[in-house]
């Protein structure tokens, strides 16, 4: 397979409906944050069965805003997982907190709920969970711990839009749920995110903080009815309510999100089929798959990962990455443990012994292409090349 036929690691699944909705926005009188963003929020809140959803420009924004609402003081701690993207750790730091790591389970690659309580101190304010790959964390024991110590739960659901834990939607368990619509996510708006919550006051504060702290955003200020001053005022000027940020989603992105959300179920079915094929043909290789039988869940299947079993093979993960790439197959590493990142090593003195399970997984994991539109012959080619690598 030559470079012309390179199998991409991730690819958006767009069609005529997305084109139509984006053109509508482009031909309207407004393309910034406005009525289409509001419609996407309404549709997403209905899909997740929550009271409020606020559209943002990223999941990172949702995480950061969630943590800012906790009013963290110096040295306040937030417990989280080491097997995650940098945004999780960075958001804690930028909100003024200190990330405290709890190692992962070897089956789900999620935070090990049995190890959380040992890391709680008087400075602990929250638990920031990551539902890795689409498998939700074991929420029942985590909720008990959070209630016992009066801790907030923030859910990083970047991989888990469709996921459920015991028939309840991810993102609806905690203080907030944070979602990503990045280019390779299960539904995509190119760049984008969503924060969901149950509390009206939280939702209202997020709505203001996401756009500089403005009491009224530009769309509302420019509409004729918004220019009618309140009683006794010559002109109703906007105010700055909080120290805010530029985290809003615009209607162009929201138009994509509305269209993508309509076919979220059919796209998951396509990924489910691909996962079954991978499992069927790769189960005899010296690798681990992410899974668990210890609780009931619905898997969003954002990732299909394999982890090399070093007890059964001397092959190295990085050589497999290079081999697949040279054979025209795009691959990902989701994720290296944050304990291996130079920045965090300097800041927190983390090392390879800090979280041993995460270090092993992070050094031996790779993600295979998994998206609607991946052709059967392309998946067969991927499987063939993987078998060849381990047979040699």
What is shown here, in short?
With 392 residues, the chain is of the alpha/beta class. It has helices at residues 16-26, 35-48, 59-68, 86-94, 139-149, 200-209, 218-222, 251-262, 264-282, 317-326, 342-348, 356-364, 376-391; strands at 52-56, 77-80, 98-101, 124-130, 152-156, 164-165, 168-169, 176-180, 193-197, 287-288, 297-298, 304-308, 365-368.
CATH architecture of the largest domain: 3-Layer(aba) Sandwich
The strands making up the biggest β-sheet line up spatially as 1-9-8-5-4-2-3
Poorly predicted runs are none
Overall mean pLDDT: 94
Strand portion, in percent? 5-15%
The CATH class of the largest domain turns out to be Alpha Beta
Q: What would you give as the CATH superfamily of the largest domain?
A: Type I PLP-dependent aspartate aminotransferase-like (Major domain)
Return Rg in Å. 22 Å
Structure report:
- The chain has 392 residues and is an alpha/beta fold.
- The chain folds into 2 domains: 16-263, Aspartate Aminotransferase, domain 2, CATH 3.40.640; 265-391, Alpha-Beta Complex (Aspartate Aminotransferase, domain 1).
- It contains 13 helices and 13 strands.
- The chain has helices at 16-26, 35-48, 59-68, 86-94, 139-149, 200-209, 218-222, 251-262, 264-282, 317-326, 342-348, 356-364, 376-391; strands at residues 52-56, 77-80, 98-101, 124-130, 152-156, 164-165, 168-169, 176-180, 193-197, 287-288, 297-298, 304-308, 365-368.
- A 7-stranded mixed β-sheet has the order 1-9-8-5-4-2-3, with helices on both faces. The chain has a 3-stranded antiparallel β-sheet with strand order 7-6-11, with no helix packed on it.
- Strand 4 (124-130), helix 5 (139-149) and strand 5 (152-156) form a beta-alpha-beta unit.
- Helix 1 (16-26) runs antiparallel to helix 8 and helix 9 (264-282) runs parallel beside helix 13.
- The longest helix has 19 residues, at 264-282.
- It is globular and about 80 Å long.
- It starts with 15 loop residues before the first helix and ends with a helix.
- The mean pLDDT is 94.
